[in-house]
Amino acid sequence: MDMESLMNLDTLKNLSPEQQAQVIEGLQKQAAIANAQSLITDLSDKCTTKCITSPGSSLTGSDQQCLQRCMDRFMDTWNLVSNTLQQRLQQEYAKGPSFGSGPTFQ
Hints:
By secondary structure, the protein is mainly α. Helices cover 74% and strands 0% of the residues. The termini are far apart. The longest helix is centred in the N-terminal third of the chain and has 35 residues, at 17-51. Heterohexamer. Its main location: mitochondrion. This is Mitochondrial import inner membrane translocase subunit.
């Protein structure tokens, strides 16, 4: 079954629960891969722009140190934001469904 046919709601309704679980698992894996690729691209772009001010054939010690610190800060920040978002979503869903409105963040 190709991805285009899976996007059809009628096709999804006709799948067995096991097939639906497989589709969901596949989509989750694809989303995780896309998220990781985006994270690596953002990390590379931001830290390279910040740390490599004079491109050459090799990195200086200060370039390497800057890149390491930049990557560490970027990952720490990304993890903090991700964990905070996950906690807030769990809190919102624990409150129960509120019809007509999505989660509210303050």
